[in-house]
Amino acid sequence: MEYYPGSVKNLIRHLARLPGIGQKTAERLAMHILQQPAEEANQLARSIVDMKKRLRLCSRCFALSDDALCRICNDPAREQKVLCVVEQPADMASIEKSGAFRGRYHILGGVISPMDGIGPDDLKIAELLERIEQEAIEEIILATGTNVEGESTAAYIAGVLAARPVKVTRIAS
Ligand code: ZN
Question: Are 155 and 126 in contact (CB under 8 A)?
Answer without folding.
Answer: no
